[in-house]
Amino acid sequence: MAGKDASVLTISPSGPLRGWATTFGALIGSGFRRYTTYRQATIAGTFTNIVFGYLRCYVLLAVAAGAVGARPAGYDAAQLATYVWLGQGLLSVVMLWGWSELAERIRTGDVAADLLRPVPPLTAYLAADLGRAGHAMLTRFIPPVLVGALCFPLRTPTRWQTVPLFLLSVLLAVVVSFGCRYLVNATAYWLQDARGPIMLWVLGAGVLGGLYFPLRLLPDWLAVGLWLGTPLPSILQTPLDVGAERDGPVMQLGLVGLQAGWAVLLLALAAVVQRRAERRLVVQGG
């Protein structure tokens, strides 16, 4: 017991809460440092995002030019350009696709080692993903937005609360995206191979998340149904609308509040799924 107490005190000299925060922060830092090693991939990915940003921006600006009143779904040309370039920057921050680490570790059985560690897998992966998102915010978000600002008339925020609300919305979008990706990967506990659910996620997340076009272009009943019935619009559509100031302050705050609700719900659901999966592994002798 004395040895155990000494170990706890070494990790957490001022109590368990500070120890948890220190550990969580260290895991965020490790996630950030991990992605700093992929320099060539970062440069190539940023260049690709910029190229597609030009294509998408010209398409949506053409839609705006041909629309009655030049405001399709309530967006003017500057808001549409802002929507596109913020979206190109946030694509790697929220990481809609490309994460199957948990599913692969479940398939190979390496997840057993994760379950033996003092930090639960959900907490460890969340912290690492926040570190990854921080790195992407610096390296994959800023360059496309700067290029867009130099080449297109982007909308400059006219309300002081837009910038902090946008940053909060981005953080919540990362958490919502992580929760969805974690649940999709966790299907491997039951299916052994999660490539099918991951492929469905890849196909649906971009379309229903607002990457390819603003969801407000859809009929109102469908757009509202997607927003309230699924977490996907909270991943990209919400932060993009907040950043482009598509709505008034009250609506902006409501959208961010909906994001927060989805973030809490998805993390809680992921925790329940993880606990059930661990019991399943014990029953199977894993």
SS field, number of helical segments: 13
The parts where pLDDT drops under 50 for at least 5 residues are 1-13
Instruction: Please tell me how large the radius of gyration is.
Output: 21 Å
* Amino-to-carboxy terminus distance: 29 Å
Roughly what fraction of the amino acids lie in strands?
under 5%
Q: Give helix % range.
A: over 70%
Instruction: Provide the domain count.
Output: 1
Average pLDDT taken over every residue: 87
**Overall outline:** globular
Structural class: mainly alpha
Number of strands: 0
Sheet with the most strands? none
SSE succession = HHHHHHHHHHHHH
Characterize the structure shown.
- The protein has one domain (16-284).
- Helix content is 76%, strand content 0%.
- It contains 13 helices and no strands.
What is the element layout, followed by pairings?
Elements: H1 2-11, H2 16-36, H3 39-66, H4 77-94, H5 101-108, H6 111-115, H7 121-151, H8 162-186, H9 188-191, H10 195-209, H11 220-229, H12 237-243, H13 249-284
Helix pairs in contact: 2-7, 3-4, 3-7, 4-7, 5-8, 7-8, 8-12, 8-13, 12-13
Protein name: ABC-2 type transport system permease protein
Organism: Actinoplanes teichomyceticus
Keywords: Membrane, Transmembrane, Transmembrane helix
